[in-house]
Structure formats: structure tokens, C-alpha cells
Amino acid sequence: MAQELTKLAGGSFQRVFFANSGSEAIETAVKLAKKFQAARGRFGHSIAALENGYHGRSGIALALTGMNIYKTGLPGFSLYPGIVHLPVPRTGVVDLDELGRQLDARSQDDLLAVVAEPVLGVGGVIVPPDGFLRALRELCDARNALLIFDEIFTGLGRTGTTFAFERSGVRPDILVVGKPLGAGLPVGAVLTPDDLGSCWAPVDHSTTFGGNGALVGAVGKAVLGELTAGGLADASERAGNQLMDALRSAAPPDVEVRGQGLLIGLEWQSPDQAVAFRRQMMARGVLVGIGGQQRSVVRLTPPLNITAEDLKLLESTTLAVFDEVVRR
Ligand SMILES: Cc1ncc(COP(=O)(O)O)c(C=O)c1O
Q: What is the Cα–Cα distance from 215 to 224, expressed in whole angstroms?
């Protein structure tokens, strides 16, 4: 599984650490970044993540998450020293200087790393404008900070390319994947280049069931094989474009349809509408998620190997429920 993952992710990654979940993989990536920076004599605390970003519900993963809804009633737990959040521009030309000013104004000391989802999933299916990931890369390079991409949601074909970062031409220093890798079994993975991966000794970090042994290794390898042999990233791109075109032409005027590949968001004007929409979809046997800062974005994330017939069913069900929710 490690070999297949590093092959898929391209040349710069040689090492993989396996964890039991996405959250644990994120915690590992941040711990590794801190250790690596400390070995270079950099003992600052600042790590930037994105507003609306989602990275899990454990300690550092929750602190990195830029969604207040998951932090209520947890003041001491959800604030980790040095973690700050940057706004994500929604449209237009990315202003690198302005982004740099915001980053420096918010950072409390030496910036160690930036953690970002290339497309923000749980936070409301936000596709940052072209140039945003490149700007993050440049800001990191100028500050000797590490760029960590959380591709737990977007990775392995979900957004129409094997990894979402591929569209930007920007590569991270650390890549984190999870979710579909185990096809339902628990696993997360942190990919690094040699110099990063070798900066800690085995004693520095471990977990009893990390990677969950031979079973998940075999499953993950099969998943990666199917992703490649089945052309699932391309299939996701095609199906996503087809579905988004159909939904855009029929969506009520106050619903925004956006996304990449088969990570599709429908932003409603209010959380009540999103909840009503989800209830009707569920009643018709279609599972959808709800996210976004206001919980007004419905997520459609069908399987990447969805058949043409099921894709049509998803489309017709969504259109029927559009009518129903708007008529209420
Ligand atoms: C982008 C992203 N990062 C991290 C996580 C956390 O992963 P897990 O739920 O496996 O701990 C998720 C889960 O939804 C996610 O979407």
C-alpha cells in the first residue's frame, strides 16, 4: 500500500506513516512538521490553517478546523497555541501580498507550516480560485514553512484527479490521505519526502494498530489498483461535470451549485432549506451530507464508480426534491 501510494502521489514522497483515521494522520503530520522545524533550530509555534477548513475532531485536528460550530463548549480543548486561520477568497484574482499580510498579522511567531484542503469539503465544498494554492506555496517558501495538504476528503479521485493538488501544479511537502483508502476500514496515511520522514526515530511516534496491519494493507492496495485500472478519477470528473451541468440548469435561483468532480455542494439560503432538502433526499433513498459554517450546504458525494443508471437516478431525484423544497 505504501509503495502504491507513493507511486500515485508522484516523485517527491518516499515515506509513509500509517494511522488509524484521518484525524490521527493530521495530528501526525503536524507533529512531524514541528519536529522537523525544531531540528532546523526553529522553535516557533505558528501554524496556519484555513477558515472553513475541516481536519477532524481530536485535539490539534479540531484546533486546525476553521468551523466554530464544532468548537462550542470546548474553549481550552479547541484552541491550540499558535494555530491561526486564514480566510479563503471565493472568487477573483488571488492577491499574494494581501494574503501574506494577513498571514503575518495573524501568526504569533515564526510560521512552521500551513495546513490546507485543496478543495474545502465539510466546510461547504469551497473551490478556491485559481492561484490560491500557488500563493500558499509561495508564502510557505518565503517563510521556510512546510505546506501540508489534507487530501483525506479530496484525494484518491474524488475531485476528478487522483489528488486535488494536481490541477494547481503545486506540490505539498506533506500529503495526508484517509477515508476511501481503506474502503470502509479505518486507515489514514501521511506521505513525506525522505528528509522529513527520516527526521524522527521510531521511538518518536507510533501507534499500536497504525495502518491496521495486513488486512487494511491488502484492501488499500486493492483500492489503489482499482482507482488506477478503473480510471476512477476520470470517471469522477466526467460524472461530476455531467451532474453539475444538469443541476445548474434546473436549480432554484437561490441555490448555488459548485464543486469539482464528484464533490458537489448545493448552497441554500438557509439551514432550514438544507435540512428539508436532505430529509426529502433521504426519504427517497439518497444519502447526502450537510456542511458549511452555517450548515446550509448539502454535499453530494456519490461513489466514484457510480453507474450511468444510478447517476441519472441521483440527478432526477435531486431535481424532484428541488421542486418539493421550493414549493413548501
Ligand atoms: C478533509 C478532512 N480531514 C480530516 C478528516 C478527519 O478524518 P477522520 O474522520 O477519519 O478522523 C476529514 C473527515 O471528514 C476530512 O474530510
A: 14
Q: Among 166, 198, 229, which residue terminates a domain?
A: 229
How would residue 88 be classed by pLDDT, with cut points 50, 70 and 90? very high
Residue 212, pLDDT score: 82
Q: Is the pLDDT of residue 200 over 90?
A: no
Q: With CA atoms as reference, report the closest residue to 174 among 14, 61, 7.
A: 14
pLDDT one-digit tens code per residue, 313-324: 999 999 999 999
Residues 277, 201 share a domain? no
Please classify residue 256 by burial: count the beta carbons closer than 10 Å to its beta carbon, then call 0-12 exposed, 13-18 middle and 19+ buried: middle
Q: Please name the residue that has the C-alpha cell 451530507.
A: 289
How many alpha carbons fall within 13 Å on the CB side of residue 87? Answer: 11
Rounded to the nearest integer, the mean pLDDT of the chain is 95
Catalytic residue of the set 31, 110, 150, 221? 150
Length of the chain as a residue count: 328
Structural domain count of the chain: 2
Annotation says 80 is catalytic: no
Q: Is 278 in the pocket of ligand 1 (CB under 6 A)?
A: no
Range of the domain at 134: 1-229
The answer to whether the beta carbons of residues 49 and 83 sit under 8 Å apart is yes
- Decide: 27 in ligand 1 pocket, CB within 6 A: no
Based on the residue annotation, tell me whether 70 is a catalytic residue of this protein: no
Specify whether 218 is located in the same domain as 140: yes
Residues 269 and 221 in one domain: no
Q: Please state the atom number of ligand 1 nearest to the C-alpha of residue 53.
A: 1
Q: Is 53 in the pocket of ligand 1 (CB under 6 A)?
A: no
Asked if residue 326 has pLDDT above 90, the reply is: no
